[in-house]
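Exercise 7. Given the encoded structure of a 267-residue chain, write a plausible sequence.
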């Protein structure tokens, strides 16, 4: 055989060898990627007092977790009429229990963790992580809102209010009922001239929104507004360069835990 022919054969064999190795390496990498993406889902971290919208496809299970900041009761809520208490379970392998109550009139499910050898009203230990799952056993997608609260939590006080910035949304919360006397307290500064203002809100539960001038004395109440799930409250002829004060409290609902967003704007 001629030298030129032998050289050509060696070159072709080398090329086939390289192509085969390259294809084999590519297949290995692909298998590695699949193994790395095992499909395990991380638990979704719940933020205290913040509502989040979620969707479960038919047959899907999602995990949620939260960490207690101090000892107390930490109820979590599903704000819809379709969440089934049987579908809410503690993380597998833990010895915690979960008790849930359906409030059909208000379209929400309230759930509480219970530690071993304690009642639900004893509350949870501080600085402990709790995890639970929610399963959609239906054949259709399930859309819901979930929120975590701490009982008897509020924002601000009559002596030290949370200051709102005009045109900036604020995420607020209440962790009590209408019998507890809990309210959250805010203030905002008007612009330099007399003007009308609008409070835009969205909330998981109905609220009573009261506007005051100077302080929270009943005689200084300027306006009151009962919320729905979303809407506006109108405040007319507010003086310029003046602090006004807002008190947000539960409505007449017996269990008015609420997560809400409020924005105050000049008209």
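Solution.
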């Amino acid at each position: 055989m001629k030298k030129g022919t032998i050289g050509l054969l060696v070159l072709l064999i080398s090329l086939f060898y390289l192509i085969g190795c390259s294809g084999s390496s590519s297949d290995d990498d692909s298998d590695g990627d699949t193994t790395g993406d095992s499909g395990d889902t991380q638990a979704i971290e719940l933020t205290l007092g913040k509502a989040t919208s979620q969707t479960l496809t038919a047959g899907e299970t999602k995990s949620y977790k939260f960490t207690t900041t101090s000892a107390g009761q930490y109820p979590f809520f599903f704000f819809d009429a379709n969440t089934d208490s049987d579908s809410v379970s503690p993380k597998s392998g833990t010895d915690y229990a979960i008790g849930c109550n359906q409030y059909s009139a208000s379209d929400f499910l309230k759930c509480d963790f219970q530690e071993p050898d304690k009642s639900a009203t004893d509350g949870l230990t501080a600085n402990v992580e709790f995890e639970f799952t929610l399963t959609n056993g239906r054949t259709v997608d399930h859309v819901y809102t979930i929120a975590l609260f701490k009982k008897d939590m509020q924002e601000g006080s009559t002596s030290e209010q949370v200051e709102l910035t005009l045109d900036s949304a604020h995420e607020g919360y209440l962790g009590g009922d209408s019998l507890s006397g809990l309210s959250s307290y805010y203030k905002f500064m008007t612009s330099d001239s007399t003007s009308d203002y609008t409070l835009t809100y969205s909330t998981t539960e109905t609220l009573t929104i009261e506007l005051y001038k100077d302080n929270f004395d009943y005689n200084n109440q300027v306006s009151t507004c009962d919320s729905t799930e979303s809407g506006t409250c109108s405040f007319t002829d507010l003086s310029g360069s003046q602090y006004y004060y807002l008190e947000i409290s539960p409505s007449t609902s017996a269990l008015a835990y609420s997560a809400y967003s409020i924005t105050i704007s000049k008209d």
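Remark. The chain is about 15% helix and 40% strand. Students should compare their own answers with the one above.
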